[in-house]
């Protein structure tokens, strides 16, 4: 049984969003700083105001659009994953300890994965047509047997399955 933190989930969401939209954030600030240095110093204050107004709004938008969704709840809820080379990934959620509510298990075929990013501490599986976007598998959740207590064999098997499915992309973060 493992789970990821809400911070780790939001870091993944923020990395994807910022990698896509960083020019829209940087360009107005850079233009105002350039105009402020060359023509009128008041534009450097405009750049500072843009930073102080726009960045908190971006963070709030990410929070409301991603952190408060059912997919975020599914991603951070404790769960058990069974990964098979032919069957895909089966996710079984732990019941809520406070309310005792049971959650429906989820099955993910290899074809539903649009991309897998191999990172230094985890694997991020992205989906194109699912009710949630990411499954983040920390390497600490890949438990080895008695001959392999650090989990290097399950990690290598997961990497091989993702490579065989043609979904792998190595990233070191």
How would you describe the overall organization of this protein?
It is a single chain. The protein is an alpha+beta fold and 173 residues long. The chain has two domains: 6-68; 73-170, PH-domain like, CATH 2.30.29. It has helices at 6-38, 42-67, 70-76, 152-164; strands at 79-84, 88-93, 106-108, 113-118, 122-127, 134-138, 168-170. The strands form two sheets. It has a four-stranded mixed beta sheet with strand order 6-5-4-7. A three-stranded antiparallel beta sheet has the order 1-2-3, with no helix packed on it. The radius of gyration is 21 Å and the shape is elongated.
Topology:
Layout: H1 6-38, H2 42-67, H3 70-76, E1 79-84, E2 88-93, E3 106-108, E4 113-118, E5 122-127, E6 134-138, H4 152-164, E7 168-170
Parallel strand pairs: 4-7
Antiparallel strand pairs: 1-2, 2-3, 4-5, 5-6
Helix pairs in contact: 1-2
Supply database-style keywords:
173 residues, alpha+beta, PH-domain like, four-stranded mixed beta sheet, three-stranded antiparallel beta sheet, 4 helices, 46% helix, 20% strand, elongated
DSSP summary: helix tally: 4
Low confidence ranges: none
Q: Compute the gyration radius: what is it?
A: 21 Å
Share of helical residues:
40-55%
Going by CATH, the architecture of the largest domain would be Roll
Q: Please summarize the sheet with the most strands.
A: 4 strands, mixed
Overall, the morphology is elongated
């Amino acid at each position: 049984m493992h789970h990821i933190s809400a911070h780790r989930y939001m870091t993944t969401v923020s990395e994807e969003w910022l990698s896509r939209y960083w020019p829209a954030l940087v360009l107005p600030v850079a233009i105002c700083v350039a105009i402020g240095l060359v023509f009128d110093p008041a534009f450097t204050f405009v750049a500072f105001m843009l930073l102080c107004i726009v960045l908190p709004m971006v963070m709030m938008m990410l929070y409301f659009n991603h952190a408060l969704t059912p997919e975020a709840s599914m991603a951070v809820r404790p769960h058990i994953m069974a990964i098979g080379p032919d069957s895909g990934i089966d996710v079984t959620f732990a019941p809520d300890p406070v309310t005792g509510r049971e959650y429906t298990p989820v099955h993910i075929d290899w074809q539903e994965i649009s991309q897998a990013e191999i990172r230094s501490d985890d694997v991020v599986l992205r989906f194109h047509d699912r009710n949630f976007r990411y499954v983040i598998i920390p390497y600490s959740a890949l438990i080895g047997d008695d001959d392999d207590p650090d989990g290097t064999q399950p990690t290598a098997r997961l990497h091989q399955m993702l490579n065989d499915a043609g979904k792998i992309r190595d990233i070191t973060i």
